Structures are given as C-alpha cells and as structure tokens.
Amino acid sequence: MRISQLTLRQFRNYPKAHFQFSPGTNVIVGQNANGKTNLIEAIYLLSVAKSFRTRINTEMVMFDTSFAKIEGDVDAHSRHYHLEMVLSQEGKRAKVNGHEMTKSSDFVGIINVVVFTPDDLFLIKGSPRERRRFMDIELSKLSNSYLYHFNQFSHLLKERNLYLKSEKIDPVYLDVLTSQLVDEQLILIARRESFVSKLNVEAQKAYARIASQKESMTVTYQSGFDLTASDLRQSLMHTYAHDRERDIRFGMTHHGIHKDDLMIALNEREAHLYASQGQQRSIVLALKIALLQLIYDEIGEYPILLLDDVLSELDDRRKTMLLDLLNDKIQTFITTTSLEGLSHQVISRAYKIEIRNRKESR
C-alpha cells in the first residue's frame, strides 16, 4: 500500500503544492507552523475522509478561499487509484478515478493509514467518546460494510431520539424503530468484539517487547448490554422495553453502542487512573504497533504509517522500538524539526522533504 504523489490546493497553508514520495521512509523536515502536519493530515484525509485534528471542514480551507482540494495517486489491493477530495462550506466531495462517490463507504479505506501523534494519549486519558471514535474509524477503514451499518445505526438513533421527543408516541412505531436499531447494533457489536479481541492479542505482544516483563496490558470491549445472553437480540429488545418510559421521559435513548467504551488496563488496573505518563505512552505505542499487524492480517497489506512529531516525545528505548519497524514493507512518513533524533540507518535510506516558507524544497 503506497501513495506516490500528492497535490494540495488551498489546503491549510498551501496555496498550491505538489509532492512525490518514496515507497519506503519519507522524512518531512521543517520548523513548527511551516506545514509538516498539514501534509500528514492531507494523506490521512484520503484514507478516512476525516481529519485527526478537527471536525470542521472549513478549518482546513485556506483563509479567504472557498474550497480546498487534495489529490493523491495510490497503489492498494493490487490496483492503482487516483483519489480526490474537495472541502468547502457545503461539505466534502470525493472522487475515485474521476468518478464521484455518493457514499462515504465507497471511499473510506481504499488506502489504510495508521497515524501516531503526541495527542494520542487521549486514547488513555480521554472520554469514552474518543475511544469509540478510534474503534469506529479503524473498523470503517477495514470494512466499508461496517461504515455502512454504522451510518444506518446513527441515522436510526437520531430518528428514534427525535421521535421520543414527540408530544404523542405511537408504541407500535416506536417498536419498529427500536427493532431496526437493534438489528444494526447486532452487526456492529459482533464486528467490534472481534476487532477488540484481535487488537488485544497484538497489543499484548507489542507491549511485552516495549516494557518490563513484569507488566502486562489488556484491551477489552465494554458494552452496556449483556453480551453473554444466549439470545442477544431478545436481550437487547428486553433492555429497550425496560427503558421505554425513561427514554420517553428524557427524550433520548439511554442504552446502545453509542455508550460503549474500550477498557485499557495495565496489570489489571485502569490505565488512565494508575499508569504513569511513560507507561501510558508505551500503551499507546503498543496499540499503534498492534494496528499495523492487525490490518496486515485482515487485508494482506501493511497500512501507511504516519508519525507526526512523535519521536521527540519518546525516550530512546521506545524510539528505537518504533524505528525498528521501518522497512520496505511499510511506507512511512515522519515529521520532525530536526534530523538529529533519527539514526544514521534511517536517514541514509530515507527520502527527505524539507518544508520551508510553506513550500517544498529539496
């Protein structure tokens, strides 16, 4: 899985720029605020159709312009793709090989990327919403079917919540909405359980290589439903029947996968409460390494790895562990303000791009 070139127009601080990349390691060097992270963000957008920095499209559009455009040539799944994305106040438009995509599920995941940034400690310290978002994005990249069913669930949840606020409730219609909501959740729960189980196995292996032998980490899926029930559909319907009066009274759906969480633990204790800052960084690094292997096992190709200014945040041991992953099988992008933190081995084989005065120079 490779991206060979990228063209930006009116994206962030780039009026117009064109980049060509190596299929191996690419090191993007430049001072802060010159646009290194913007370049990484553009590649990420071509994978997920979302930014890892903002949920507001217009923040990515250059000031005093009406739209931003990203184009990239990629090779994935033994095919070549030309991907385009336009961001504006009206929303996003995506094209694949010149054909406009009407559904996000037809665009997301054509290329798969794993991004690692200093802000990724939110996976430990952040709210359940952040961990759900992590889980849903990774699953959507692996399966457009997951993204389709997730969008269906989101639409039904919104419709049910609106109906719960109605002055007059028809119990038959509410049951129909609830039944449809349950059916979508059964699909999504099964996918989430499988994903987290595989992630847990790979993360434990990675953490054992990074940290002390006396420490162990686990990742488990937490649901508000009883997932051990012999008839899960019946169990979910019973939960909603029990909650009906409360849901109507508050005008919202109290149970559902929109309340799920990932429990990340160190030595069987909640990491956000008991793990040190260094241990938390090791856990996040283990999760990212686990994703690389999990994605390879699922689709037969390694994803593109984006390392945005993380080397300065890691101690020598963790940095070495991460850099040892770099090989010809994984196309990697590293942003840094200086080459000093990189080994001679990495620098000698890397393709270097210097970002200076908001332009590319070599």
Keywords:
single chain, 362 residues, 2 domains, six-stranded mixed sheet, Glutathione S-transferase Yfyf (Class Pi), Chain A, domain 2, Rossmann fold, alpha/beta, six-stranded antiparallel sheet
Précis, in short:
With 362 residues, the chain is an alpha/beta fold.
Number of domains: 2
Major beta sheet summary: 6 strands, antiparallel
Overall pLDDT confidence:
93
Count, helices: 10
| SSE succession | EEEHEEEEEHHHHEHEEHHEHEHEE
- Give the class from helix and strand content and strand pairing: alpha/beta
CATH architecture field of the largest domain: Up-down Bundle
How many E-type strands? 15
CATH class descriptor name of the largest domain: Mainly Alpha
Unreliable residue runs: none
Spatial strand order of the main sheet: 2-1-4-5-6-7
The CATH topology of the largest domain is given as Glutathione S-transferase Yfyf (Class Pi), Chain A, domain 2
* C-alpha-based Rg, rounded: 22 Å
Strand content: 15-25%
CATH superfamily of the largest domain: RecF/RecN/SMC, N-terminal domain
Distance between the termini: 25 Å
Describe this structure in words.
Keywords: ATP-binding, Cytoplasm, DNA damage, DNA repair, DNA replication, DNA-binding, Nucleotide-binding, SOS response. The chain is built from ten helices and 15 strands. The chain has 362 residues and is α/β, with parallel strands linked by helices. The chain has two domains: 174 residues, P-loop containing nucleotide triphosphate hydrolases (Rossmann fold, 3-Layer(aba) Sandwich), CATH 3.40.50; 176 residues, Glutathione S-transferase Yfyf (Class Pi), Chain A, domain 2. Strands 2-1-4-5-6-7 form a six-stranded antiparallel sheet, with helices on one face. Strands 8-12-13-3-14-15 form a six-stranded mixed sheet, sandwiched between helices. Strands 9-10-11 form a three-stranded antiparallel sheet. Strand 6 and strand 7 form a beta hairpin. Helix 5 packs across helix 8. The longest helix has 40 residues. The protein is globular and about 65 Å long. It starts with a strand and ends with a strand. The relative contact order is 0.17. The model has no long low-confidence stretch (mean pLDDT 93).
